[in-house]
Amino acid sequence: MIIWVDADACPNMVKQVLFKAAERLSLKTILVANQYIATPPSKVISAIQVPQGFDVADDAIVQKMSAGDLVITADIPLAAEVVGKGGTALNPRGTLYTKENVKDFLVRRNRAEELRDNGLISGGPPALDKKDIQAFANTLDKFLAQAAR
């Protein structure tokens, strides 16, 4: 299993949790972004810089990932593609996207986007806080423990 990170918008606190888990478990972790992303010196953590453009990093992740891989992303359409290819996606708030639930999340996301486009709602989710980071870390640890079995 490889952990892929949609790194353009991934919060630094989430990256730190990932880096610790990757080192602890010797899990190959690849950050993908359309800008330079610093990574710690590591045998298991690396970064790929892709060209600028809409969804270029997302497309690279979907193209390079394999079934059984884990993708860290807040992008629900990307999560749906990952799940469709046999992977699992985890967002920075600790929500795990699986074949059982990703369609519901995609429907809700599309509905919210439509409401925003029509001016009926505005804004997005609140900023990440310590509780979100803890939820992410807990879900990641649980997923990785199950995957190791």
Question: What does it look like?
Answer:
- By secondary structure, the chain is an alpha/beta fold.
- The chain is built from five helices and six strands.
- It has helices spanning 12-25, 56-64, 76-84, 102-117, 130-148, and strands at 3-6, 29-33, 45-49, 70-72, 88-90, 96-97.
- The protein has a six-stranded mixed sheet with strand order 3-2-1-4-5-6, with helices on both faces.
- A hairpin with a 5-residue loop joins strand 5 (88-90) and strand 6 (96-97).
- Helix 1 packs parallel to helix 5 and helix 3 (76-84) packs antiparallel against helix 4.
- The longest helix is centred in the C-terminal third of the chain and has 19 residues, at 130-148.
- The protein starts with a strand and ends with a helix.
- The relative contact order is 0.16.
List keywords for this structure.
149 residues, 5 helices, 15% strand, six-stranded mixed beta sheet, alpha/beta
Question: Which secondary structure elements does this structure contain, and how are they paired or packed?
Answer:
Elements: E1 3-6, H1 12-25, E2 29-33, E3 45-49, H2 56-64, E4 70-72, H3 76-84, E5 88-90, E6 96-97, H4 102-117, H5 130-148
Parallel strand pairs: 1-2, 1-4, 2-3, 4-5
Antiparallel strand pairs: 5-6
The helix/strand series, from N terminus to C terminus, equals EHEEHEHEEHH
How many helices? The count is: 5
| Low-confidence runs of at least 5 consecutive residues | none
| Biggest sheet record | 6 strands, mixed
**Distance, first to last CA:** 12 Å
Total number of strands? 6
- The portion of residues forming beta strands comes to 5-15%
